[in-house]
Design brief:
mainly alpha, two-stranded parallel ribbon, 9 helices, 2 strands
């Protein structure tokens, strides 16, 4: 039971990581892939894949209500690699497409969080390998 909780905690913590897959979770719990699926479903009532998808959809719902980001940006921020899979999963869980959900739940006239702030908060901007800054280059010069 403790190992299953550790794997569930990993899903709750790292839900946006696209590399978080069944093999990684099973290894985290110390189970074989198939034993992990059976044990997780027996304890939590859904498979690990369903649980992770549910977590990601919940986060997407929040972003659709509050952030001025495209559906594609939200799709990638919550850990989906395919817009089609995201939209189909979202509709299965909520009964609405992401665009329909946004239109229904965002009050008219309410300001959404600008997309650049939402991306920064969600870790959507990746740092590039930067060349030394001007300050670093000039630090060896004059006293």
């Amino acid at each position: 039971m403790r190992q299953l909780r550790l794997a569930k905690d990993a899903m709750d913590r790292d839900w946006a990581e696209p590399g978080l897959d069944l093999d990684a979770l099973a290894a985290h719990a110390g189970y074989s892939r198939y034993h992990f699926i059976r044990a997780f479903k027996a304890v939590y009532g859904e498979t690990p894949g369903q649980y992770l998808t549910h977590r990601r959809i919940e986060r997407a719902e929040e972003m659709l209500r509050t952030a001025n980001l495209s559906v594609t940006d939200i799709c990638h921020l919550v850990g989906f690699s395919s817009l089609g899979t995201f939209s189909a999963s979202f509709k299965t869980w909520t009964g609405l497409t992401p665009s329909e959900y946004r239109a229904k739940h965002v009050r008219k006239g309410a300001a959404l969080i600008p997309g650049c702030y939402a991306m920064l908060w969600a870790g959507g901007f990746r740092r590039r390998a930067a060349s030394p800054s001007a300050e670093d280059r000039n630090s060896e010069e004059a006293p």
